Amino acid sequence: MATLTGVSPSGFYKDLLQTPNGNGGVPTTSPNLLQDGLGNNTAFGVSKSKVQILPTTNTTNTFTIYNSSGGILLNVDSTNSAVTIGTSAVPVGTNMFTYYLENTSVIPATADTWTAMPFGYPTSPIAIFEFGTGDDPATSFTISANAQRSLLLYNRLAYNIKIDAVRATFTSDTATGDVIDFSLGSYAVDVGNSATSGDLSGGVQIAVSSPVTSAGYEQIYFADLTIATAEVSAGRMLMAHCRQDGTNSDLNARLEVYYHFN
Fold this sequence. Notes:
By secondary structure, this protein is mainly β. 2% of the residues lie in helices and 38% in strands. It starts with 31 loop residues before the first strand and ends with a strand.
């Protein structure tokens, strides 16, 4: 470590850190960024009641805490407005939504047709809600009856979120399976408490799986969905769908959505 012993101020003043406050010492409330002896700002600001980090340029590691071995414990990424923990860079506040089809004996009702999956807990839908035969599920949905049953499908977001991963785990209930796809989408929802309340519009596909061929109930299958649109705004309805190319087996499935608040 360098020492200042025997060194004149002209030999080290550039390396000194100061609180630029007109010789008034540390500010009382609003932090001042520390400067070197040449007046260059650092990213660190202090006052008697507050500290702050204010980088001159955004980076992916603006603030990082390590353990004694050099492993990352916490990282602040000001480029992507993200805070992560651990060497795997898991976003702080990561949570999971789950959609289930369990012991349904009714899904799918129609081949090559997107069918909505219940949200939140294992359940068997007592009504089938189909979202068309297109490449993606239908972008709108009108409740004409059975609102009490479609309620099982709905997951309205209270906050902005960012989707980190979507994973499906599934199997069939007979020895002969089908080709299976999964999709996750978001919709605008009518919350006006009028005749159209609960109707969905403006659907956007967030993630979709590649087709997986099931050979039946002898195996459990897995699929990681490809995320197309990760950020979802508060107030949108998040809905999961599945599709099979036939009706050889009924589907037992769980779709896990990993996300963090954005």
